[in-house]
Amino acid sequence: MANKEKKGVNTGVYAVATSIILAVVLVIMTIFAVSTKYTAFSPEKVAQEYVDGIIQTGDGYNAYKVTLLSKNQKYGNFIIDAYMAPYVNDGEDVKQADFVGTGSKEEQNAIDNVYNTMYSYYCELIKTDTYDNYDAVFDKYFSRLVEVRKAVYGDDYMSTEFMFGAFEANVQSYANYLTGTERTFTPDNKKVLQEEEIGAYQLMFGDIEKVETENIVDGKKQTVTEEKPIYKLTTEVTSCEELSEADAKKYVDEYAARIKPIAESGTTKAEQFGLKDDKKDAMVDAFAKLDCAGDITSVAKVKLTVKEQHDQTVAEQELYVVKIGKSWYVDNTNIDTSALYISQGDD
C-alpha cells in the first residue's frame, strides 16, 4: 500500500514580480521532472502523484504533467499552441505601455493589478470548472487576461511570458491561500516585511502546537517559540486493480470515443480564431496529439483516500491509469476531481 504525506504549516510568500515567479516555477518543474522519472513506472505512484498534487495545494494545473495530455508533447508547448497562440503578438512590433521595462512603481502596480484581478477570476474558474475541464479554464482565463491587460496597461501587447507569468502567479497564490504564507523580513533582518497569513487548510484541520519559528525580537531576527495551527494531509492508495485483457480493450475503445472529438477540435478552434499558416497548424497538431488510443497496452483502476492527521477521511478519489510502453499515465478524460477541492475554492 502506497502512502504519501506532506506537512502543511506555510509554503512561502506571495510572489511580487514576474521574474521571481518564473524562477520558482522553473525550480518546481525541475523537481517535478526528476520525481516523475521514478514514479512513471508504477500505476500506484502515478495515481498518488496526481491526487497528492491537487489535494496539497489545489494545483490541478501541474497535476496534468502525469496525464495523457502530456504524453505526446510538452505541457507548456500544448498550452502555447492550443490556447495562447490566438493572442500572442510579441513578434509583431506591437507597442507596449511606456512604463514597461522601466522597473518603476507604475510598472509594479500594473503587474500587481493584473495579477490580483486575474486571481479573483482564477478562483471563480476553480469553483465552476476545475481542471477536469482544462479546455474551459484555459480558454476563459486567457481571453479574460487580454481584456484585463488592455484595461490596466492601455496596450494590446501579449506574449507567452506575460501569460504564463500571470497564470502561474495565480496558481501559486491559490496554493498560498490554502496552505498559508510565512513571515518575511527586510534584507537587513531588522523588520518584518510581511506577516504570515493563515491558510484555509490550517483553519480547517490545524491543531494549535508550539513550534520554532523566526520573528523580530529587540530589533533582530531570532528563533522563537510560537503557537501555530499545524495540519497534515496524507494521500494513500487503497487499491490498484489491473483490468483483464477484455476489460482493458473495452476501456480503450471507450477512451478512443471520448478523445476523438477533442483531438479533432483543433481545426474548428483555429478557424474560429481566424488563425492561419504556422499558428493554425500548431493548434491543430496540439489537439491531434492528445489521442493516445493506439498506444495503450494496459489499464488499471486505482482508488485513493486523503486523511488528515487524526486519521479522518477528508476526500476519496477513483481514477484510471493507462500504460504506454513502460510508463503509466492518468487518463484525464475519465475523471472527476471535485472532491479534492475541499476548500471549495473560496478566496
Can you give a write-up of this model?
This protein is α+β, with helices and mostly antiparallel strands and 347 residues long. The chain is built from eleven helices and eight strands. The two termini are 35 Å apart. Residues 3-19 and 27-36 have low confidence and may be disordered.
Search tags:
347 residues; alpha+beta; 6-stranded antiparallel sheet; two-stranded antiparallel ribbon; flat; disordered N terminus
Largest sheet: 6 strands, antiparallel
Per DSSP, the total helix count is 11
Residue share in β-strands: 15-25%
Rg, Å, rounded: 22 Å
Tertiary shape: flat
Helix and strand sequence: EHHHHHHHEEHEEHHHEEE
- Spans of at least 5 consecutive residues with low confidence: 3-19, 27-36
End-to-end CA span: 35 Å
What is the average per-residue confidence, as pLDDT, rounded to a whole number?
Answer: 90
Strands, total number: 8
Structural class: alpha+beta
Helix content: 40-55%
